[in-house]
Here is the input.
Amino acid sequence: MIPKLFFGYFSVVMIVLSLLIISRKNPIHSILWMLVMFFHIAGLYLFLNAEFLAAVQLILYAGAILVLFLFVIMMLNLKKEVFAERYAGEWPVAVFIGGTMLVLILLALTSLTQGPLGSFTIGVVQADTHARAIGRALYTQYLLPFEVASLILLVAVVGALVLAKKHLKSYK
Amino acid sequence: MVPLNWYIGLSAIIFTIGVIGFLIRRNIMIMLISVELMLNSVNISLVAFSHYLQDMRGQILVLFIITVAAAEAAIGLAILVSLYRNKAVLHTDEIMEMKG
Here is the structure.
């Protein structure tokens, strides 16, 4: 009963928060609601016994990505934004597409059957600690994807520098 | 014990809200935030699958998704900054250089 109550609280708050995020006029308000949303997602991860991911969620998303968004907002002129029209003209079409997608996903969900269970039971993970279990899998079985992820980050660094540079032509 | 279907349903609802937000808003900043919302909803479903199938693969995939989300946010915001510097617009329907 208590887990269901917890889940009910998390789901209601998260749905309300995501509606707030997409509907606020001022982007700063959206981003601050997003911060609350990230805290709730981290709570849901804890609820699912993924404490390392909850920490990564808080450090990386709430600590890095949201601060990046806030920094960029400071460079833009938001005075006009508060008076501008929020929604595009075709919003009924968008809501229809989204609603259809949701109905399709929920219909497909009714025939969900669970696959075979793996070897990482709660007892195994608890004996090994979660961070060590995830790190062992990451550095042995998934080493190549891990290196590819580092390449993606390198591309992001170089791309962001090149795109945001002011006088690119003077270097030619 | 909460059924697995509930988590996937919650993830689907948040994903749909993210899609709708991406499509209806004019502000590019909010569109980027909606993309982050979609990525997070997928992360929730992956962690739920990982917990219920007792497998680590879902959580490792979540780590990679967070990496890609960070890269995507950096590149997207750099594009936004250079767009704002060149055109001083933030709304998608005011950018029509390729319309012909």
Observations:
- Chain B has a mean pLDDT of 90.
- The longest helix of chain B spans residues 57-87.
- Chain B touches chain A through 72 residues (CB under 8 Å).
